[in-house]
Specification:
alpha/beta, 11-stranded mixed sheet, two-stranded antiparallel ribbon, about 25% strand, disordered N terminus
């Protein structure tokens, strides 16, 4: 285990290109027999200077609908956590796009901040990897600029349940019987203890789980990892993996102990980073000043989320550059 290398991050920030800006475009992946429609945001290299774009309470630097600059570009897909959305990690997406990556973050259908109608139970956990596979399919085939993407250089970033999603895509087979009690009502956001039920027995994994060998490198932060606590559950993960954990935790099924056990049982030693004084939600993007009192915006005393994200984003860029090629 290592802690964040501040010197490396600072040095890298000084050498990052200042000639690119993140182009921003919204995507709609049509629904069909394989699943419902998926809404997504795409960031890409752009040669124009960014402007401030207001999206709900967020103000982000971007160039709306900027033509993609470059050819043969690597692709990184981002998966949000429980109740999240495609802008929850926009600063990481911007850093990657500024460094030459095409980045697509999705809203998992019926399991995002605007629509939690099917966010609970096993169904969304089984369906999340399918959402990512469908997104990759779209970007390599139906996306108008698919020729600009190198299909041999695909990466993934996921947080919390998004981290779980990535581990499953990389070959893991979760033990759902380890999940804590979940609401009997799949539409419920919270429920009294009397309305909770134990998760169903382990489903027949070969028929229900989706792996995707097209993903060549992966970063996961505070993943839902209570279902990946044995060597058998993760024995098929062989791609380069950078694993981040918060020192203080606070995410259901993603305790510091769960994440540390995951790091220990993986067949290949991951690039494991523990973030000092961070809580689970510290991995979410910086909050607007008007929302600093919101639960998702509250960090431990003394923790500087903006400073951490500068270091974190630099390390993520270095990892993907190293493992997906320059």
């Amino acid at each position: 285990m290592t802690r964040i290398c501040l010197a490396l991050a600072a040095a890298f920030c000084l050498t990052m290109s200042t000639t690119q800006a993140a182009g921003l475009k919204y995507l709609h992946i049509p629904g069909g027999r394989n699943g419902p429609a998926i809404d997504a945001a795409m960031w890409s290299p752009c040669i124009k200077a960014p402007e401030e774009v207001q999206i709900r309470a967020l103000t982000i630097p971007a160039v709306p609908d900027c033509p993609i600059a470059g050819e043969g570009l690597p692709l990184v897909i981002i998966s949000h956590g429980y109740g999240g959305w495609y802008l929850g990690h926009h600063d990481t997406a911007e850093a990657l796009a500024d460094s030459g990556f095409v980045v697509v973050a999705i809203n998992h259908p019926h399991a995002n901040y605007a629509d939690m109608s099917r966010a609970n139970g096993l169904s969304p956990l089984i369906g999340r990897p399918v959402d990512i596979k469908r997104t990759i399919d779209f970007m390599l085939t139906d996306f108008p600029d698919s020729a600009k993407i190198d299909p041999q250089r695909i990466g993934f970033y996921g947080f919390s349940q998004g981290g779980y999603t990535g581990l499953l895509l990389a070959g893991a087979n979760p033990d759902f019987s380890k999940l804590p009690p979940r609401c009997a009502d799949p539409k419920a956001v919270g429920c009294p203890q009397v309305n909770q039920t134990r998760p169903p027995q382990q489903p027949p994994l070969p028929q229900t789980l989706t792996h995707d060998p097209r993903i060549r490198a992966m970063v996961v932060a505070d993943p839902l990892s209570i279902v990946f606590q044995t060597t058998d559950s993760v024995r098929d993960i062989t791609i380069p993996l950078q694993l981040w954990g918060s020192e203080l935790g606070g995410g259901g099924g993603a305790s510091p102990e769960n994440v540390a056990t995951l790091a220990r049982v993986l067949p290949e030693k991951p690039d494991f980073r523990i973030v000092p004084n961070a809580v689970h939600l510290s991995f979410l993007t910086m909050c607007p000043k008007t929302q600093l009192s919101s639960e998702v915006c509250i960090d431990a005393p003394g923790f500087d989320r903006a400073a951490f994200h500068r270091e974190f984003n630099a390390e993520v860029v270095v990892f993907f550059r190293r493992n997906l090629g320059e």
